[in-house]
């Protein structure tokens, strides 16, 4: 863990179930490779994960089974370790590559900005050479204009110990917001490609499909059906991501799919046991699958390896932690802009409400930062999409790191001047409709303006009772309090209490449940409105990211506006404006 990180906390644990073929899975880490310095249950860092994987590989070798590491993209954008440097990722690429990942693919965040896609192609693809898979993604070299696969389309390899044949794919969901130096092929088209049809005809023991795709999204179903058509008995294992939740499901009795959360809070675990070798395969052979969502908690990592603080860190892992410390120091990530007077939640507290981060932005930040000196006398509606805010703010120092954790994007505030108020006031309602504004595919679903979790979670989840009291949250597993005296009831921390299609025993750590309040896709502040009556026209101010949705909403309301009408409203990114507001408005020291 990093110096100054919260001390890990003991908690009751569920063990990992090993099989013949085992996997560790990370997804949507978004630059959190230094761990969660303010949250004890997730405060291990990438160096600890390197140590953990080394021990787990050793155990696999000793037991004659196999362990593979998987990463399903969105490694960038969302933390100072990646975002605070110039160029972005100056330290991150070298830190990330220290983990020996066996199968890796791209997420949408590697592709929003052309320079990010360039760096992915320049650094991560060669760093992982034959491990990187891009089944439906091409890269365009903007200097030569040459279009090429981002990486190999699929990978066939043998596992180390049992020599199991694996055919692996690496997909991205049907993403349309990518920069023009990349091309994402819709999955339904990719599966018709000659190379794919040949790959699914390869003799193999297991198919592994990794993807920056939610395990309930149609893209995975399409791939599953296409492989299964020709391979009725072969195990097909899916590793997904993108929607930032812990989730698992099975598409049939010989398939299994796991998604492993977000922000390096979770290290996913999947194991498969039974007759995996194709020579032994028959209608009668049975497979068993297990999943665990491992909290990125040092004490939990000790527990799963049977080691302790003295024996756990490997030399390599320790060195990686030191690389992170050096980068964090050089980037001055602990520099505090101000002191957050209280914790502001994205989803744990209702919106509107006094502890909601969105209410804070709407009521306090926007009225101050949505100001264009040349148009300061024009009343305006300022709209921010809730998906642009990526994390909670904890009471205490608000640092350079926190800035990027909360608001990592380069989005700016843009506007359309002098929109009739009668029309402008109705825009927010259309943006906040569930589903799509129109039947056409552009812009995509309105929910893409909100946080990714809300692609899956449509209703608030309110836990009035602590389920641990009944004991059944342990799923029948023996209770193993770490670091607590015998007979003492362990103290529980708040955290994940996952229910997936397999049951409610997926989390490796028993937590107190937390609430999840759904929030609208967008929030809006009325700024400098007349004290009496309504304005005739307003400036309609909004994050540039949501321009396609705003234009469609205006069109539906009878306003013929296009991209030419959209202008920059305030200099600087929203992130810079927010950090500036904090510096000015919150006490410097805690
Ligand atoms: N400039 C941007 C880019 C993205 N968003 C929000 O992030 C969501 C995607 O997040 P994932 O981690 O799931 O890929 C997207 O749907 C937007 O809500 C943004 O606000 N601004």
From TrEMBL:
InterPro entries in alphabetical order: 5'-Nucleotdase_C_sf, 5_nucleotidase/apyrase, Calcineurin-like_PHP, Metallo-depent_PP-like, Nucleosidase_C, Pesterase_C1039, YHR202W_N
Keyword Signal belongs to the record: yes
Domain Calcineurin-like phosphoesterase: 22-245
Region (Disordered): 473-504
Organism domain of life: Eukaryota
Gene Ontology terms: cellular component: cytosol; extracellular region
GO MF terms held by the record: hydrolase activity
Gene3D superfamilies the UniProt entry points to: 3.60.21.10, 5'-Nucleotidase, C-terminal domain
Keyword Cytoplasm included in the entry's annotation: no
GO biological process, one term: nucleotide catabolic process
Family matches, as PANTHER family: 5'-NUCLEOTIDASE-RELATED, SER_THR PROTEIN PHOSPHATASE FAMILY (AFU_ORTHOLOGUE AFUA_3G04160)
Protein's name according to its UniProt entry: Calcineurin-like phosphoesterase domain-containing protein
Organism in which the protein naturally occurs: Parathielavia appendiculata
